[in-house]
Amino acid sequence: MSDTIFGKITRGEIPSEFLYEDEHCVVIQDIHPQAPTHVLIIPRKPIPRLVDAQQSDSELLGHLLLVAGKVANDLGVGEGFRLVINNGADGGQTVFHLHLHILAGRSMAEGELAGGLV
Ligand code: AMP
Asked: Is the pLDDT of residue 1 over 60?
């Protein structure tokens, strides 16, 4: 599987500030924020797309959701945020290493598309 920038970030090969990290994932600021709060939850395991995840990844996927909630709370946006996973080029995915976007701090009102990501 080809490596991506997120592989290099999670392995520490590209210096990045981790807002949170544990043995399974890291959280970084998005370099091109689409909202006042825009962070990425990136598993250390390089699953390319959500559809490539296997049954054996179920615990990891659940963990990523729990980390999303914790990080949102820690960032002070636990009362209102949007969680986005883009899957595949047609889904707006540009980095083929699974990641979750937390977007918050501006209106995510009905009718708006996902944080400008689509
Ligand atoms: P996606 O389009 O869902 O694949 O999202 C990829 C996201 O990664 C985009 O929001 C980019 O702004 C962000 N991104 C790309 N390179 C970096 C980087 N080196 N550090 C932080 N965020 C990045």
From this structure: no
Residue 28 CA: which ligand 1 atom is closest? 21
Q: What is the mean pLDDT of the chain?
A: 93
- Which ligand 1 atom lies nearest to the CA of residue 9? 19
Asked if 29 and 17 count as a contact pair (C-beta separation under 8 A), the reply is yes
Q: Which fold has domain 5-104?
A: HIT family, subunit A (3.30.428)
d(CA 56, CA 52): 11
Domain spans of the chain? Answer: 5-104
Q: Who lines ligand 1 at CB under 6 A?
A: 5, 28, 30-32, 40, 86, 92-95
